Amino acid sequence: MGFEQDIGNYFKFEERGATLNGELRAGLTTFLTMAYILIVNPAMLSVGGIPFDDALFATAIAAFVGCIVMGLWANLPFALAPGMGLNAYFTFAVVLGMGIDWKIALAAVLVEGVIFLIISLPQVGWRTQMINAIPKDLKIATGAGIGMFLAIIGLREMGWIQDDGATLVNLATTEAFGSGQYAIYQHGAIISMVALLAIAIMMARGVKGAIIYGILGASLYGWIVGAYDPYNDFAAGGAGWASSEASWPEEIFGFVGMPEESLGAAFGAFGDISNNLADFMLVMIAFLFVDIFDTAGTLYSVGRQAGYVNEDDELQNSDEAFMSDAAATIAGAVCGTSTTTTYIESAAGVEEGGKTGLTAVVVGVLMLSGLFLSGIFQAIPTFAAACALVIVGATMMKQATEIDWDDKEMMLPAFLTMVLMPFTYSIADGIAWGVISYVAIKLGMGKADEPGPIMYGIAVFMLMFYLGPGDQSTFGWLFSTIFG
Fold it and tell me: What is the pLDDT of residues 197-226, one digit of tens each?
C-alpha cells in the first residue's frame, strides 16, 4: 500500500483524479494500438539498408527513452516511438530516392534532434512561443484533423477502404483482397468491424478497457480461424509489412541482440557529409520541419482531449514534453532509427482514462518487451489493432464543434487544417497550409497586424519548404546554390 501511495504522490493521482489500475490499463491500451511500430519500422528501414534486428533494437530503445522521460519528467500520458511517415521519408525519399547513405541520413536525424532540443529549452522557448502564437481555432482544428487522419489509417488497415485510380479511395471489396480464398467469417474486414462495433457498445455501456477487449478479442478470434489480414496482402494492393494470414505466435521469447552496424553509425558518418552538404542540409531541415509540427499538433490535440490545455490555451508542461520528444529522437538516431515523435495513438490511452505520466512509463516498459517478445507483437493482426484507431478518431472529432465556423476569416484555414491531414497523410501538411491560408486571408482583409511576427515567420518558413524554382523547394535551391 505504501508503494502504491508513493507512486500516486509522484504522479499526482489525487490532483488529477487518476488511479493505479486506470493508468496501467491506459498504458496497455496505448501500447496495443502502437505495438505495430516494433515490426513496421524495422521492416521499412531494412529496405533502406539498416539491418532489421538493429532497427528493431533502435525502435524499442527510442520509444523507451521517450516514454520514460515524458512520464517521469513531464508527467503526461503521451507515448513516443519512431514516427510513421518520417520513416517512409527516410527510406524511400532520402536513402532510395536521393541516394544518400543511411548512415548520413541518421546523422541528419541526430542533428535535427539536437536543434529540436535546443529550441525547446525553457531558456530559449521558441517551441512554446510558436505553439502559443497559433490561433486557438487552428489548434482545435488540428485535433479534429488528427481524428480524421486516425480514421483513414484505421479504415485502411481494417480492410474497409482501398486506393482507387478514378476516385483515389473507395470501399474495399472481398474480391480485391484474397480473391475469395477465405470464408466471410475469416475475413479481417468483417472481424474488425464486429470488434469496432463491440468497442463502441462497451464504451456506451461504460465498460473500462473496452479498446483492449476489442483488440484482444479480434486477435484471438483471428488466430483461431486463421483470418485473412487484408492490409498485409501485398499482391492485392496492401502494404505487406507482415503476414496476410493471422496465426498464433511461432515463438515467445528470444533476445534480438545488440545492433551490429547501426549503433553509433551517425557519428561515423559526419566525415562524409562534406561531399554532399547541400543534400544533408535539405534532409535535416525536412526532418526538423515535420518533427516540429507533427509533435506540436499531436501534443496539443491529445493534451486538450486529456484536459491539459489551460484557459489560456496553453499546454501544461509543454517545454518538458517537447524536450522528451527531442531526447527520444537523439537516442533513436544514435541507435539506428529515423525520427522519434509523439504518437497520436496516445489518445487511445487517454480515452481509457490515462491522466498521468505513469501511462507513458507503462508504454515505455512494454516497448522494451519488443526486444524479447517480438514474435507476439508480430502475430497481432493489423485489422485487430486498427479498429482502435477508428474509435479514437471518432472521439477526437467532437473538438470540431468548438471551432467558430461563423468566422469567415477562420472558416477556410480551419477546414484546410482538418481535411489536408487525411488527404495528404500528413499532420504537418495540414498545419502548414492552415497557417499559410490564415495569414493570406488576414493580409487580404487588410488586417496585417493580426497574425503577429511569429505567425508570419512560420508562414514564410513553410512556403520556403513547399515552393521554389523548378521541382525544388526554396531550401533545396538555396542549399544547392550555396553548397553545390
Answer: 999 999 899 887 788 788 889 999 999 999
Angstrom distance (rounded) from CA 445 to CA 464: 23
Pair 279, 100: CB distance under 8 Å = yes
Is 250 a residue whose pLDDT tops 70? yes
In the block, cell 464543434 appears at 401
Measured at the CA of 475, the angle between CA 473 and CA 476, to 5 degrees, comes to: 65
Domain contains 7: no
| Phi, psi dihedrals of residue 21, rounded to the nearest 5° | -60, -40
Q: Which amino acid is at 263?
A: L
The whole-number pLDDT of residue 377 equals: 67
Mean pLDDT throughout 445-454?
91
Task: In whole angstroms, give the CA distance from residue 11 to residue 398.
Answer: 28
Placement of cell 488497415 in the chain: 157
Whether 5 is in a domain gets the answer no
What DSSP state is assigned to residue 234? G
For helices 277-306 and 382-396, angle between their N-to-C axes, nearest 10 degrees: 70
C-alpha cell at 335: 541507435
Closest CA to 100 of 111, 110, 89: 89
Residue 75 domain-assigned (yes or no): yes
By three-state DSSP, how is residue 352 classified? coil
Query: Which residues span the domain enclosing 447?
Result: 15-483
Answer positive or negative: Cα dihedral of 328, 333, 337, 341. Answer: positive
> Rounded CA gap, 428 and 261, in Å?
31
pLDDT digits (tens, 9 = 90+) for 173-189: 755 444 557 788 899 99
Domain count, the chain: 1
Q: Which of 78, 110, 35 is nearest to 305 (CA)?
A: 78
Tell me which of 458 and 376 has the higher pLDDT: 458
User: What's the confidence (pLDDT) of residue 177?
Assistant: 45
Judge whether 59 lies within some domain: yes
CA–CA gap between residue 78 and residue 257 (Å, rounded): 28
List, as one string, the DSSP characters of 338-350.
S-EEE-TTHHHHH
What gap in Å lies between CA 195 and CA 386, rounded to an integer? 10
Query: d(Cα 358, Cα 378) in Å, to the nearest integer?
Result: 25
The Cα-based distances of 370 to 40, 42, 215, 270, 447 in angstroms read 12, 11, 18, 30, 53
Nearest CA among 137, 148, 145, 142 for reference residue 405: 137
Residue 48: pLDDT above 50? yes
**pLDDT of 381 above 50:** yes
DSSP string computed for 289-302? HHHHHHHHHHHHHH
Look at 147-161, 236-250, 380-394, 429-443 and tell me which has the smallest mean pLDDT. 236-250
Cα 264 to Cα 269: distance, rounded to the nearest angstrom = 9
Rounded to whole angstroms, the Cα distance separating 368 from 35 reads 11
Where do the H-state alpha helices sit in 160-276? 188-204, 210-225, 265-268
